[in-house]
Input
Amino acid sequence: MTEGAAPTNLPFARSLLGRMVLIGIVPSVLVIAAVVATNGVRAYRSLEESAKVQIEDATQLVALHIEEENRRAVQVAEMVAITQLNGLFGNREATLEPHRDLLLANPDLYAVTVCYEPNADGKDADPANATLPPVTDANGRFIPYVRRDASKPEGFRYEPLTGYDDPDELWYQGTKREWERTGRIEAFVTRPYIYEGEQIVEQMVPLVRDGKLLGIAGCDRSLRTIETQLERVRGDHGYEVLVLARGHYAASTVDRDRPAAEALRTKPVAGTGLDALVSGDAGTIERPRIVEAVNPLDGELSYVATARIPTGDWMVVLTKPERVVLAPVWKSLAMNAVTALVGIVVVTVLLMTFASRMSGRLRTAVEASRRIAAGDLSSDPPPATAADETGELLRAFRAMTDQLNRLVGQVRQSSIQIHSTATELAATSRQQEETVSAFGGATTEIAASVRQISTTGAELVGTMETINEHAVRSAELAQESRRDLAGMEGSMRKLDDATGLVAARLAAINEKVAGITAIVTTINHVADQTNLLSVNAAIEAEKAGEFGVGFLVVAREIRRLADQTGAATLDIERMVRQMQSAVSGGVMEMDRFAETVRSGVDEVAKVSARLGRIIEQVSESTEGFQSVNEGMRSQAAGAGQIDAAMRGLDAAARQTATASAEFGRAADDLQSAVGALKTSVASFRLRA
Amino acid sequence: MRTLLFEHGGERYGLEVARIVEVLPAVRWRPLGGLPAFALGVFERHGQLLPLVDSSILLGGGPTALRVGSRVAVAPLAESGTLGGILLESVLGLEEIDFAAGGAFAGAAGPRGPVARHGGGTVQLVRPDRLLDREQLARILGEAA
Output
């Protein structure tokens, strides 16, 4: 059995399974979560505390180491000063040897030096200076600098100091100024700087006798040992350690991972962002100050511890990112969470398994009860194998089902009897219903028929009046039109005849014109002949010489007449042709006109025929009167329907009476059946 | 000089009236086969058959196109006085033209005579008795006889 396909419609929260989950699992989950959270917070606090202690210890360690180194270097410087003031001052040759011994005895030292004020010992011009190594300036001022040199077999070399006049060089001018300012004879530790590739720091002591400054004495120290120490402290604890001296970086573990160009050492602190963090009250070696702040060098939230070193006024800054400090807390939290989750899952699985088995049995019982409630007693009752209370429940179910089976068998028989009686009752009641509805229908029919009759009568009157008016007016109009048309047709026939006459006359004119043409041709011919005759007459006259002169004149006149005749005939010919074309055009026009007139006559005849048909249709309007007759007949039919409906009413009343009697008998049957059922039910014992 | 003016191919020509016997309408003539194109055939005058020649062809051109003004001038075709008909394309009339006056052009020995100015144009005198050379004359006369 699966929980997801549960046939019950209960929501999960209200089901047995859901409640078990709520009661059993949710509290345990809450308790475990609370334990994990509390442990996490406690672990975080203790870890933070121990981390701070560690940071403080590490800071102290570094600060103490540097303090010791500085102290030792200062002691060397003071020793050099003491030897000068107690015998060696002015003894230039004797000075160099102890300096060399000091340098070789202290591997941390880089150089040992003194720097006299000009002619402080009065021997600047001493010729014995020439026997010394190069330890004076051009004026003979004693400025020996014994420095370590690995390339020499003896491991050192002498050289004169440089840069002592530079006001920016702290080792000389700074020491001098400090003495002038305070009047105290104290060692002065410079900030670190690079000298020929070596990062060094200088410890200088003013040489004062009788309140007068004779020069300075001291030593240079390499900072390599400090960086080695810082690396040792850093180890793999995630620390970063920085040493600041007079506003500059003296050493740092940060430089290890940086390219040489970006290395911090010797650079000023101002501008790197760290100056804001270390300003204000720094801690002491005994009690370093620890704050939580963003480390400007890597941008991480870190614990920052600071401690001031008294000798040289340096400062140690130690940082450790919070991320690194808290990493173990997160790790332990994750472990706790995983363990808790596993526990919760195991508890949930066990609880769900048990609950689902129990709720499965209960659901079987529920299913069986549902079937019984739905009237299904045919199926077998659920098996009861479990020995606990649920098994008991299922066994009681089995017994109840058997009892119910017997009871229902008896009830069924009684119900069959009741059923047939009820059927009879229903049939009777249906009949009664039908009768009543038939009665209602008859009434409605009567009302409808009456309404129809009255409507038809009103319509009839209106229709008759309208038809009468229309028929009279149409007949008048049609007759009038017909008379007009007859007149028009006569006129058009006359017009046709007249047109024919005109055409005939034009044809006659055309013939006459042809005659004229023939005459003109004849005249033309005569004129031509006359012309010829005149020419020949002239020829004859010419031959007759002087006697023919008179005749020649006559001949010329004749020829002129003939020419005029010819020209006149040409004019006549032209006019006749024009007349001919005009006449034939007229004939054509007349033909066309006559054709139009004839078609007009046809049209008139057609219109007349149409009018005739209209008159016929008007006469047919007498059919309207027939429809009046039909209306009258439908009125009569309506009256007949009223009659029939009344008869139906009568019959229905009789049927109702019969049905009532039958209903009475059926009621008796039902009563006896109910009695039998009562007896059957009485055999059951009901729970109180 | 009294002259019978006629037109041929757009140019005007003249015949001396004294040399013309008679002017007839362009009558019907009978063509004769086997003759040159200028010899149109024979026609009847006062019961006598005379040869008919085409002035247009003889003056250098195509055959005469007959018109309303077309005429036949009867004139001696040789110095011997042998009569014949000359078909003229279009006779314009009789005019008095002085071919001897200044500006006139003395023509060649052929039928074409001197040219004179007249009525805004020029007129060339044509000698009917020189229209045909001896051989041509003999041929048509032989045929006509």
Q: What stands out?
A: The two ends of chain A are 37 Å apart (CA to CA). The interface with chain B takes residues 528-529, 532, 535-536, 538-539, 542-543, 556, 559 of chain A (CB under 8 Å).
